[in-house]
Amino acid sequence: MTKIGLEIHCQLTKLESKLFCSCKANYRQYEPNTNVCPICMGLPGTLPRINQKAIEKATTIAMALNCSTPDHIAFFRKNYFYPDLPKNFQITQLNIYGETSIGGSGMIMVGDKKIRITRIQLEEDPGRLIYEGSSSKNQITLVDYNRAGTPLVEIVTEPDFENPKQVRDFLNILSDLLENLDVSDPGLEGAMRADANVSIEGGNKVEIKNIGSFHDLEKAVHFEITRQESLHSRAIPIAQETRHWDDKRKITISSRSKEEELDYRYFLEGDIPWVEISKDLQEKLKAEMPESISSKKERYISKYNIPEQVANVLSSDKFYSDLFDSSHTEKNAKEIANIITTDLMGLVDTTEKRNESKLEPTHLQDLADSIVSGKLTRTNAKNALYEIVKTGKNLSQIISELDLGNVSDENELIKIIDQVISEEPQAVEQAKSNPQTINFLVGKVMQKTKGKADPKLTLELLQKKIS
Ligand SMILES: [Zn+2]
User: Fold this and answer.
1) For residues 126 and 7, what is the distance between their CA atoms, to the nearest angstrom?
2) What domain of life does the native source organism fall in (predicted)?
C-alpha cells in the first residue's frame, strides 16, 4: 500500500509585517536586502517581538482544519547554519513539553477520505538563495534576506494519502480554504511550498524536500511512487533517505542526508515568553471566521437555485464569491452567477489580471439586468464585459460606444421582419405548415440586425405576422 504524508509551508501573505519585527511581510516588491532590520538580521542585542495578528491568523487556520488550539503556545530555536538564516537559528515550534504548537491534531475531509492533521506550527521563513550561472563550476549564489522572518505556517499531515490524486484534491481544498480565510494568496510565487514523505508496500520512508509549488508537489509524489515501484519490482531495496525535487528536470534526486532532529539542538526561545491565547480570544476568532466554502455552496444552491456545478465553482474561489455576494439580488442571482462562471472566469484567471480588472459589482448588476430585460444578447453582454474589465466604463456608455444594444424598438423590428417575409416567401409557407421551421426566419432577422434583435420579441412578432 502506498502511504504519503505532507508538510506544507504556507506564507501568511495577507499580514502587514514579519513575525518578529515591523519589516513588511510582503517582501516581493522590494529591492534585494532592503526589507530588513537589526531584528530579522539577528544582530546582537536585538529582541524579537511577536506579531499578534500572525498568532490570530494561524489560530484561525488551525480552527478551520478542525485542530485543537492550546491556551498557551511556546517558541523554540532550531539551530543550524545555512546562508539563508542570518541568526543561525530559526524560531519555530515544537511539541516537546506537551501541545505548545499553534494547532494540535485535526482533520479535513477530501471527498470520502479523512486526512488527519498532525499539527500546525507558526514559524519564520528564512531568506532566499538565488543561484546564478550556467554550470556548476561557475555558479554563484546570491542571498536576499527580504523574506527572512516572514510569517509561515507549517501544516503537517499523517501519512493518510494513498495516491497523487488525493494529494492534489487535498491541495486544491487547502488552497481554497486558505484563500477563503483571507490569510494567504496561494497564487503568489513561493507562497506554498512543501515536503512529502512516500513509502510503498510497507517499505522505507523517503522524504522529498524542496518542492516549490503545489503544482510540482503532485508531480514529485507521482515520480517518487513510480521510482519506488520500479525498484520494488526488481527486488532492489528502497533506501530510507532524503531526496530533493529538481524542478527543472522534474525528478527527485538523492541528497546527502540532512541533520537529524537531534542535531538541531532545539531549545526554548527565551526571548519570547509563552503566548496566551485566551478562551475569549478563541471565541472571538471563531465568531469572526469567514463563512466556509461548503456553507456558501449550500446557500447558493438552496437560496438561489443555482446549479451545483456552478455553485461549486463560485463558492470555492473567494474572488468570485465575494463578487457574487456583493452584486446579486434575489432576482438576478442566477444570471450573475452565470456571467461570473461562464464569461468572467476566462478574463481574470490570474492574480495580475484580477488586480488590473476595473470591474465593480454594479457593472455585474447592470449586465444581468440588461440580459434579463432583453436589452443585450448574451454574446453582446460578453463583449461588453470584456470592455468593462479593461476600462471600467459604465455599461450604458459601452453599449452606445460599441453599438451593442438590441433592436428593441418594435416598429423598427417590424420593418425588418416585413422585409424578411417578402424576401423569403418559400420559408414563410413552410413555417405556416411546420411551425418549427420559423427559426429559419428568426435567423434571417438576426442576420439583418447583426445579432441585435431581441430573439424572444422577434419570434413573437413573426408568429403574429404569419399566422
Ligand atoms: Zn526586520
Assistant:
1) 16
2) Archaea
Q: How many CA atoms lie within 13 A of 195 on its CB side?
A: 14
Give, in degrees to the nearest 5, the angle at Cα 39 between 36 and 44. Answer: 125
CA 149 to ligand 1 center in whole angstroms: 7
Q: What is the pLDDT along the chain (467 residues), one digit of tens a residue?
A: 999 999 999 999 999 999 999 999 999 999 999 999 999 999 999 999 999 999 999 999 999 999 999 999 999 999 999 899 999 999 999 988 889 999 999 999 998 999 999 999 999 999 999 888 766 677 889 999 999 999 999 999 999 999 999 999 999 999 999 999 999 988 888 899 999 999 998 889 999 988 988 889 999 999 999 999 999 999 999 999 999 998 888 999 988 665 566 688 899 999 999 999 999 999 999 999 999 999 999 999 999 999 999 999 999 999 999 999 998 887 889 999 999 999 999 899 888 899 999 999 999 999 999 888 878 888 888 988 999 999 999 888 888 887 776 666 677 788 888 889 989 888 888 888 888 888 898 888 888 887 777 778 888 888 888 87
CA 80–ligand 1 middle distance (angstroms): 20
List residues, by chain if needed, whose CB lies under 5 Å from ion ligand 1.
21, 23, 37, 39-40
**270 located within any domain:** yes
Rounded to the nearest whole angstrom, what is the distance from the C-alpha of residue 235 to the centroid of ligand 1? Answer: 52
Asked whether residue 420 falls in the same domain as residue 296, the answer is no
Separation of 18 CA from ligand 1 center, angstroms? 7
Ligand 1 centroid, distance to 384 Cα (angstroms): 46
Total number of domains constituting the chain = 3
Residues 320 and 438 in one domain: no
Between the CA of 120 and the centroid of ligand 1 the distance, in Å, is: 24
C-alpha dihedral over 173, 179, 184, 186, to 10 degrees? 60
Distance from the alpha carbon of residue 59 to the mean position of ligand 1, in angstroms: 23
C-alpha of residue 20 to centroid of ligand 1, in Å: 7
Q: Tell whether 327 and 360 lie within a shared domain.
A: yes
Distance CA 366, CA 404 (A): 14
